[in-house]
Specification:
The chain is built from 3 helices and 4 strands, in the order E-E-H-E-E-H-H.
């Protein structure tokens, strides 16, 4: 994300990124915890209020992305939960090494 023309923007396209006054990378978890924040004044410095606005916008975007991922993955996650709920299979006994290689 970044600031372009004085406006914080999320998910900049290449042309926007090249022209951005401020560039920021934000990594966050679905529940809003920050993992990484890296901001650079590419063409100018930025104020704390601008940084806070960018972080708010980034966390809103991460929340929206996580919601879409949960929705899309819901059927798959239900299948995984169903498989995990079944009784665990017993591991197969190890094979004899002589049966693995065959004749020389």
């Amino acid at each position: 994300m970044g600031i372009l023309g004085g406006v914080p923007l999320l998910d900049l396209e290449y042309v926007e990124d090249q022209a951005a006054e401020v560039d920021m990378n934000v990594v966050a978890t679905a529940d809003g915890a920050l993992v990484e924040v890296q901001g650079t004044g590419e063409k100018r410095s930025f104020r704390r209020t601008e940084m806070d606005a960018m972080l708010d916008l980034a966390q809103k975007g991460v929340g929206e992305l996580a919601a879409v991922q949960r929705q899309v993955l819901a059927p798959t996650l239900e299948e995984v939960a169903a498989v995990q709920a079944k009784a665990h299979r017993r591991p197969a006994p190890p094979k004899s090494e002589k049966d693995l290689w065959g004749r020389p």
